[in-house]
Amino acid sequence: MSSIDQSLPDEITSVAADEDERLSKDVIFELLKNRRRREVLAYLLEADETVTLGELAEQIAAWENDTSVNALNSDQRKRVYVALYQTHLPKMDDAGIVEYDQDRGLISLADNADLLMMYLDTDSHRQDRWDRWYAGLSVTGATLLGAALLGVPLLSAIPILAISGVVIAAFLCLSAAHVVQNRHQERNVDGKLSRID
C-alpha cells in the first residue's frame, strides 16, 4: 500500500469548476507548502516551455539528492516520478497552476501559475535591482566631480555647477524611472491579488 496522500482537498477540487480563475490563499499555500511542487514551479519557470515528466522528475531528483542527473540511480528517479505522476501534478493541474497531459507526460505552466510565482524566491524570477543603478550612478557622479576638481583635461573646462546639474538630473531621471516601474509592478501585483479570495 502506498503512503502517498492521493486525496485532493475540497478547495483544490472545486477550483477546476470555478470559471473566474480565482484561488483562495488556502489553496495557494496548500500547493506551495510542498517542496516538490515549489521545485516543479521553479523548473517550469526556468524552462519557459513544455517539459516531459521524465526530465522534470530527473531534475527534481537530482536537486533532492544533491547530485547531477547523470549520477542518479533508478530508485531516486522512480520515487520522484511516481510522486509527481500520482499526486503533485494532478493537484497542480486541478488548481490551474500547470497544464498536465498525464497520457503524454507533458507539463507546462498554466494561467494561474503567476499567482504562485510572487510567493516564490527563485533566482530566475525577476528581481528588483535598482540598488545597482543608484550605486553605479553615485560612483559615476562622484568620479566626474572628483576628476573635474582635480583638473582632469576636458572635465576641468566644464564648470563644477554644470557637472553637478547633470548628475542631479541623472538621479532625477533614474528616480522617475524607478517610480514608474514600481507603479507598474504594484498594478501587476494588485491584479494578481484581485484573483485571490
Write the layout of secondary structure elements.
Layout: H1 10-15, H2 25-32, H3 35-47, E1 51-52, H4 53-64, H5 74-94, E2 98-101, E3 106-109, H6 113-117, H7 130-149, H8 160-193
Antiparallel strand pairs: 1-3, 2-3
Helix pairs in contact: 4-5, 7-8
Features:
single chain; 197 residues; mainly alpha; three-stranded antiparallel beta sheet; 8 helices; elongated; disordered N terminus
In short:
The protein has 197 residues and is mainly alpha-helical.
Task: Report what the structure shows.
By secondary structure, the chain is mostly helical. Helices cover 60% and strands 5% of the residues. It contains eight helices and three strands, in the order H-H-H-E-H-H-E-E-H-H-H. The protein has helices spanning 10-15, 25-32, 35-47, 53-64, 74-94, 113-117, 130-149, 160-193, and strands at residues 51-52, 98-101, 106-109. The chain has a three-stranded antiparallel sheet with strand order 1-3-2. It is elongated and about 75 Å long. 18% of the residues are buried.
Number of strands: 3
Describe the strand arrangement of the main beta sheet, using strand numbers. 1-3-2
β content, as a range?
Answer: 5-15%
In terms of quaternary structure, the protein is single chain
Number of helices: 8
Helix content: 55-70%
Structural class: mainly alpha
Spell out the helices and strands N to C.
HHHEHHEEHHH
Nearest-integer average pLDDT? 80
**Major sheet characteristics:** 3 strands, antiparallel
N→C terminal distance: 37 Å
Any low-confidence stretches, pLDDT <50, length ≥5? 1-20
Given the C-alpha coordinates, what overall shape results? elongated
- Rg, rounded, reads 25 Å
